[in-house]
Specification:
The chain is mostly beta strands and 104 residues long. It has a domain of 47 residues. The chain has 1 helix and 3 strands. A hairpin with a 5-residue loop joins strand 2 and strand 3. The longest helix is centred in the middle third of the chain and has 6 residues.
Amino acid sequence: MPQVELPALAEESPGGVSTEPPDHGLGRSRGGFTTKLHLAVEQGQKPMSIVVTAGQRGDSPQFEPVLEKIRVPRVGAGRPRARPERVRADKVSGMVQRIPRRRR
């Protein structure tokens, strides 16, 4: 039986050839090129830190990098603080599911 050579499969990303470095923040998905901005803002909506990622990246893995970029200004002499006294997240994230007991 004659041997048939199969064409070599190209190793590409699912959206096509990736020529952009990972720090450019462009990602290809079904919707085309997308970029996602992960922000930490203070109460007056002033941005404290920003991380730019490709659009297909998840939000949860970017939580720690966003918090690490926050720099709180010094109040007096000494080392600058790297994190605020408290952090608020979305109200949905802190909700506890309560299932009422079944009545008999």
